[in-house]
Structures are given as C-alpha cells and as structure tokens.
Amino acid sequence: MKKLTSFSVNFPVTIMMFVLAVFLLGYISFSKLGVDLFPDLNTPRIFVEIKAGERPPEEIEQQFVQNIESIAIRQKKVTQVSSISRVGSAYITVEYTWDADMDEAFLDLQKALTTASQSLDVDELNITQHDPNAVPVIVLALIHPEAEDMDELRRVAENYLRNELIRLEGIAEVELLGAEEKEVIVQTDAYLLDAYGLTTSDIANKISSYNRSVSGGSITEMGRKYIIKGVAEFQQLEDIGNVIVTYSQPTDLVGQVIPGERIPVFLSDVADISFRNKEPENIVHVNQKRCMALAIYKETKFNTINAVDILKKELGNLQKALPGFDLFIIQNQANFITSAVNEVKNTALIGVLLAVLILYVFLRRIGTTLIIALSIPISIIATFNLMYFNHLTLNIMTLGGLALGAGMLVDNAIVVMENIFRNLENGMPLKQAAIEGTAQISGAITSSTVTTIVVFLPIVYLHGSAGELFKEQAWTVAFALASSLVVAILVIPMLSSKFLKGVTPKKRESIQFPWYGRLLAQVLNRPWRIIIFGFFLIVIAVLLLPMVGSEFIPKTEANELTLNIKLPESTELYRTESTVRNMEDIIQGLLGDHIDMIYSVIGPSNTQTGDDDILADEHTASILLILNPERRLGTAQIVTALNEALSVVPDVEIQYLQEQSALQMTLGTDEAPIMVEVRGEELETLQTLTQQIKEKMLRIDDIFNIETSFDEGRTEVNITLDRIRAGLLNINIETIASELENVLSGRTAGEWEFEGEMQDITLRLPDISVSQLENLDFRSGSQKIRLDDVADIKKTVAPKEINRHNQVRVGIITAHIRSDKAFTKIIQKIDDELSDVVFPPDYRYKLTGEEQKRQEAFANLRFALILSIILVYMVMASQFESLVHPFTILLTIPMALTGTVFLFFLLGKTLNIMALIGIIMLAGIAVNDSIILVDAINQLKRDGMAVKEAIIEAGQRRIRPIIMTSLTTILALLPLTFGFGEGAALRAPMALAVIGGLLTSTLLTLIVIPSVYLKLDKLTSRT
Fold first, then answer.
1. 255: helix, coil or strand?
2. How many helices (H) and strands (E) are present in the chain, helices listed first?
3. Which end of the chain is more exposed for a tag (fewer CB within 10 A), N or C?
C-alpha cells in the first residue's frame, strides 16, 4: 500500500487525470443509465387460464384442472401449483424456484399442455408469464359533453387515437375500456316461429345465405379473362328485413288452400330488426360521468419515463385534432417513478450535506473538510461507471443504496486524514506525513471496507424475493465503498500533500476528547462490570424482540386508494353500475376536497395489478380515488370513514388497497394480508371447517372484511337429462344444449358492413324467466317436445370457487387488517383463536399469503446474516493473523442489534425485510470502528507498549475518527427516515436499523470492546 500512496503523492498530475477520466466516463454512463421504479424483477410464476363455457366449478376442476396440475407439478424446478376453479373458468398458478430460466420454463409448460389446449371441450387456454411491469404506463379518459353514445367514442378511440398512439416509439398496445359496439338485433318470437314452422337455425341459415360474396369461376373471351363474382351482401338495414325466410299458402273464403300459389314470408314479418349497441364488457366512469378509457402499455425493457414523455408530446397534437373532445390523463406511472427517484436523489443530497457539515464541525478547517468531502462525488461518479457496465438501472433501490452508503463514503477518507494530521502534529514533513499516514492506516481501512462489502455477498447469491429485490442495491453499495477505498488511498494523500502546505495543525482548533483517556482508564480497572452491563443490554433486547413484532414489507402511504367491490355472483353489469354510482355519490359527499378524481371500472378489465383480476366478472368493480396531496386526513382515516359510510350499501363486499406497486405484485402481496388455508378433500367438510374458522376470526377486533372461498356463489339451474325418456324420443344432449343457447344467448347469423366496420347480426328470442324454462319446447324431426318431458330442472347455488394447492383441495379464509398492531401479533391472535378447532384426520389449517412469504424471507435473510458474520470473521482473522481478537470485534454486532431493537421499540415500528437488510448491512458497518481501534492497539503493542497503556493510547488516538465516521453515516441516513415521497416507507426501516445499531455500537465500542480485549489478551497470554 505504501508504494501506491508514494506513487499518488509523487505523480499528482497522473492521479488528477485519472480522476477527470472517472468524471468524464461517469457522466456518460449516468446519461445512459435506465430509470425505473424497481430493479428488473422477474417473479418465477406462470399462469394458465382456462375458459370452458358455463360449467360449474366442480366440473371445471375434475375435467380440466386436475390434469393440468399433474402435468405442471412435474415440470423442472416447480415449487408449488395452486388453482382457482369458478363457473366456466379456472386459473392455475405455477411457481418456480428463483433460479429457474423462465423463458425455458414457459416453453416447456406450453409444450406439455398442447394436448389439453386442443381439447374440444376447452373454449380457450391461455398461458402467460408474470410481468410486474404489465400495467398501463398511462390511462387516458376520452369524453365528449354531447356524445352519449359510447359507440361514437369507440370509433374515435379505435380508428384514430389507437392507430396514432400504437405507432409511437416504445408503445406496445392500447386497450379500450368502457367501449360499446353496435350490432344488428333480429328479435323474433317463439310463437311466430312455431306458426310458420320455423326454427332459429332456419332463420340464421337464411340470413347467412343471402349475405354472401362468392366467386363463380371465370370466362375467357377474345384474350381477356373475366372473373364471375356473385355479390349478395346487405347494403342497408332494410335489406335484412326483406330476406324471405319461408312461404305460406293462401286460402280462399271458406279456408281452403289455393293450390299452386304461395306467399313469401319476409324476415320483417316474423322479427323486429334494429341496430343498437351490444352490452359492454365493462363500463368506465370518471368523476361520476360515463366515458371511455384508453390503457396504454409500453414495450418490455423500454424506459417508462421516456415512453410517457413521447406520449405526452403526442397527446397535445391529438387533442388539437379532436375539437370538442376532452382527452386527459387519469393515471401516469411515470409520475410515481419520477417522484420516487427524485425524492431519493434529494434525500441522498441532504444526507451528503449533513455529513460534510459534521466534518467541518469536528475539523474546523474548510480546506481539510473539502478534501475529505471530495471523496463522496468521486466515489459516486465512479459507481455510475460500474453500474452501467453491470447493466443496473437508476431505481429507488440502487439510489437508496447510494443514499445509504453516502455517509460511509467519507469514512476511509476521515481515518486517512486523521492519521496524516497526527503525523504532522508529531513533526513529520507534509509529504512524508501523507505517505506514512496513509500507509499506516491502509490495512485497517481495507479490512473495514472489505468487511462491509462481504456482508452483501450472501444477498447477491441469495435466491428468493428478498435476494432479487436487494441484489442491485448490494452491488451499488459494494461499488461505492470499493471506489471510496481507492479514493482514500490514492486521491486523499495526493490532495493533502498539495493543499495542506503551510498549514500547522493546532489541536485547539478541532474538537478533541481529552476526557476519554481518563474514562477508559477507570473502565479498564473494572472490566467485568462493563462486560456484564453490555451482556445485560443484549438480554433486554432479546426480551423486547417479540414485543417489537415483524411484518413482510412496510406499509406505505400513497396518494391513491383503490376500492375493490364485489356484489353477489349473479349480479348483472348494469346493476353493478347502479351500485357503483350510489357509492360514488357517497364518496364524493363524504370526502369532497380530499379527492382530486374518482375513476371507476365496472366489470372485468386487465388494467389493474392483481393476479386474480382475470377472474373478475360483471359483479365486480374497482373505484380508484386519486387523493389530494394536501388533504388533511391520512389514508388510514379515509379508509375508516369510507368503511363506515359505505356500510349502508347492501350486499357489497369492499376491499381497500393502497396504491399497488410493481413491488407488491412481484412479491405476491397484492392479495389480502391474512390468508388461512384449510386442506382436505371433501368439500362439505372443508366448508364446515372454513365457516368455523371464520366465526372464530370474527372475534378478533384487529381484522375486518373476513371472507371465505365458500361464500355464496352463482345461482345455477341444473338440467339433468333423463336418458330413458330422451332415448325413446330420440333426443340427445347436444340438441338440447344448442336450442338452449339459441334461446338464452342468441345466435350469430353473419356480419353486416356499416360505415367501414363489420357489425354482428344476432338472432334473439325474448328473454324468459326460470319458471318458463320448463315450458320451453323444441323440435326433433316432425315432433315437438317440451324440455321438462326429457329433463329434470332444479335451482341450485354453485360454490363460489374451488381452490387447490399442490393437488389438494383447500378452503380459504381471507381478512384485512384494521389496526396498526404488528403483523405477527395479529397472526398470534389468530393462532390462539384457532387452537381449539377440532380437525378431522387428514384435515389441517395453515397460515399462508403474506405470513408464509414473511417466514420464507426471514429464514433466507437470517441465513444471509449468519453467513455475513462468518465472512466478516474470516476477513478479520486474515487481517489480524489471529483467531481470538476477531471475536472481540464480532461482539460489536450483538451490541449494534441491541440499538436497532431499542429504536424500533421506542418508535413503535415493526421489523420487516427492509429492516433485516439494514441489519445485514449493520453487521459490516458496526465492526469498522472496532477494527480501527483494535488495529491501533495491536500496532502500539508491537511497538513495545504494555496492553493497558496501548488500549488507552489507541482509544485516545482513534476516538475522533470513530465518532466522526459514525456521525457522518448516521446523519447521512437521517433524511431517509423522514422521507415523504413515493417509496419513502420502503427505505426508512433500513435507515432506522443502521442508525439504531450505530448509536449503541459506537458508544459500546468505546467502553466494552477495550474491556473484552483486555480480558481476552490476558487469557491468550496465559495459554
């Protein structure tokens, strides 16, 4: 190290050019770094969606789901398979290990399910890979004050806006919501059809045969070839009514049929023909007004902020081209990202300024302070180079890593500068002081930097949600600290030798701690008392730990609140819309100025972030409240007020969700936080047990909105064919099913081109009631048969859904948390309540969902912490060439954890994966002070000083750099704990964990570590 330092002092121009090169390349790298909210997270989940008519859940499960589950569970690296079977659809989730190649897994699963997808009974089978960024980057609203017809808005949106937007760079898709499309309705009557001896199939075939454009070959004449083309397509609506569907024979005055004559029966004689809108798939409201929405998706890997900037520029032009139309932004993902990233940048900058301020307070010299402070920008800019070449992006995790590491970037520089000054005070020439001062301390700062870096190695190699989330942050901090070490060894001594000329160190100018030597002498006279005191604090912290509690990820405060609404399963779309309008009126009257916008989507849509939105139906809706940033009420207060006000709306289940981010979706926490699974096979037994558990959970005041998967499902009419009667009458199920579909759903009879668009022609019979169903009659050859002649008809209620986990049926109970109590405390209450529920053999319950993910993440991070401590010990054993003294330094870690527990307990915070990452970082940071102290003691011992005197002298020499490095780190982290921007709640626990740990580890390092060193040294000297 001495040779490197000598080189930097003797060749300052070379070092200066090196620094300028770092600045230049760093600027270029920074400009090319992508900006996004989170790192590129790829949750190892693949979804299989099945649609198969209107089959009940049990039939869907037995006929399709069980087979697909057995195929999926055998795929490579699959950890678990779960499914939800509902009426007419099923949703299977296949989860893989985090190290699985998801592209390969997707292709393998697709290939394995080829046979299932080709089944004639399956209407649709879709296999999709989880993409946390598969949410719209922008949602637009399109409104016209005078246009009530949603088909008119659809034409503008589909034929103009969508075509213009899809051409833009980075835009992948534009989805229309709330659209309606016109169709030709041919409304006939069963009695009229019967009178003329017609069926719906006859009419549909007639319409299709008269609405065709066909080729009749060609004729060649005099060297020219003529194509024969027959065109019979409908030109106007009247043409459809003029289709002859049959003929009737006229009668004379006495009622006798006149032979040889017949009268054509036109379609208009047996049906009313109209041109009107189809029933929409979903309905959209903005501020209680019906409108259309355009959900715009970006291309994968394309920068979100750039995509939104391109969109915004184009929107101005589109608005000018549509006079009278109002086109405005409802949701903008880039706002959240920009706000979050800028907030981290500002927080990091404030932290750096505070760190520099504390340097000046201690050193009282502007020049010296600036030399040390220069290590921060040089290290950060050097980090941008390393981030670019390792394909990292600027996101709240990498920038949070820089903010977390900002205070540590000056640590090495402080220690080096402090040692240079000590040599100057001892009368050494400036140049020699710079070289010798750096060389003397280089081993200690290298060791302390390496110990901080190695704690991140387990995170980098850690699989699972925590490892994926923090991997980029770990690399960023490691790059920054490695850069700061290079700066401390090469740049600081060079700058010191050039800019400290003529400076005579005066101890009285800078802050000194003359009292510490006297305190240390007294401490070393009674070392056991201090050691016992430190042990006592650790015991108290261990006892407090259960009281602190834990959770998976911290709760966030956001400016958006979503109300997911469910009505009874069979509710029609327009009934759901009516309920939503009522709720919108209540919300507007209650909150008023607290909300900027109300955006409602009634019916199914793919624009939300929940994985189960694909199972939404006409009975579901979501109301998004864009909250006023200057509101007086917090989100929790708003939820409480809304829950009370909306309780008057009948038959409604409401789930309150704060803004769902890509992080929550990726980590799988976008569902209800409390989930209890009951495993077993018999549905009736599962239903009984689930109901018992629900009743037990209703006693717990901390949770609300408790639902089960066996809550009342969709009403059904079961038609059971009597095989004997059907066989005697020569009737089969296909005939009955076809006629029922014609009567209940209508029948498509071709298409009609209108104003450049193809519109469906749909043949319908009047709606019938359930009681009229048994009187339905249909033809079989020449005979007419009633439905109740060949089938038994019975009303039933289908199960809401059938859930399976790893090929075993499960009943699920979900709940939401209403209190601020620690998550684990609520889980403990649930366990206590369920302890006296009697489960039959082969039936059991398990807490899953967020609790399962919390346990898995905590287990992984505990392993990472233990591995980090082992690696730190190895580094220190190598540094000190001792197996004993590293144990002295390792004592700093439990003392640091004591401070973290105390701080979280006093602030009423709970531990989560963010806090655990902070604790892992703390394992590397907290030992730095001890390393500096023990290294100084060892140097003085080698110089011949007695142990006790060496400890006192080393403590006196190192107290100032120890306190300075700790304070700069703490003050740099302090703004992260008070962040008010987007994502601030995610970073605060990390910062608090490190701050709490450093406070106690610094104080205890100064008194406990010397006492332990003294005792261990006596022990080793005896042996």
1. coil
2. 40, 30
3. C
873-890: average pLDDT = 84
Range 609-642 burial, b when 16+ CB lie within 10 A, else e: bbbebbbbbbbbbbbbbbbbeebeeebeebbeeb
Residue 356: Cβ within 10 Å count: 19
DSSP 8-state assignment for residue 925: H
Centre a 10 Å sphere on the Cβ of residue 743 and count the other Cβ atoms it contains.
21
Three-point CA angle 288, 292, 297, nearest 5°: 120
Coil, strand or helix at 674: strand
Tell me how long the chain is. 1023
pLDDT value of position 733: 67
- How many CA within 13 A on the CB side of residue 336? 22
Mapping DSSP onto H, E and C, the string for 292-347 reads: EEEEEEECCCCCHHHHHHHHHHHHHHHHHCCCCCEEEEEEEHHHHHHHHHHHHHHH
* Alpha-helix residue ranges (DSSP H) falling in 835-891: 850-880, 885-890
Q: Model-level pTM?
A: 0.77
Segment 815-819 shows an average pLDDT of 78
Cα gap 410→107, rounded to integer Å: 50
The Cα–Cα gap between 194 and 748 comes to 20
Task: Name 373's Cβ contacts closer than 8 Å, sequence gap at least 6.
Answer: 355, 356, 359, 410
β-strand 757-764 against 182-188: which pairing, if any?
Answer: parallel
Which amino acid makes up residue 858? Answer: F
Token pair of 155 as six digits: 């034409």
Residue 145 burial (10 A CB sphere; 0-12, 13-18, 19+): exposed
Residue 251 is classified by DSSP as: B
Dist CA 726 CA 967 (whole Å): 88
Beta strand 45-51 with 289-298: parallel, antiparallel or unpaired?
A: unpaired
Average pLDDT over residues 177-187: 87
DSSP 14-41: HHHHHHHHHHHHHHHHHHHS-B-SS---
Q: Where are the beta strands (DSSP E) in 723-862?
A: 747-754, 757-764, 777-780, 783-786, 791-799, 802-805, 808-817, 844-849
Q: What are phi and psi of 220, to 5 degrees?
A: -105, 125
What 3-state class would DSSP assign to 612?
Answer: helix
Burial environment of residue 779 by CB neighbours within 10 A (0 to 12, 13 to 18, 19 or more) = middle
| pLDDT per residue as tens digits for the range 292-323 | 999 998 887 677 888 888 999 898 889 888 88
- Dist. CA 846–CA 233, nearest whole Å: 63
* Number of Cβ within a 10 Å radius of residue 951: 27
Residue 794 to residue 787: CA distance in whole angstroms:
13
List, for residues 572-593, the tens digit of each pLDDT value: 899 999 999 999 999 999 988 8
Are residues 165 and 175 in contact, defined by beta-carbon separation less than 8 angstroms? no
pLDDT in tens, 348-370: 788 788 888 888 887 777 888 88
Amino acid 1015: pLDDT: 85
More confident residue, 306 or 986: 306
d(CA 475, CA 123): 47
DSSP per position, 401-443: HHHHHHTGGGHHHHHHHHHHHHHHHTT--HHHHHHHHHHHHHH
Considering all CA atoms of the chain, what is the largest pairwise distance in Å, rounded to the nearest integer?
141
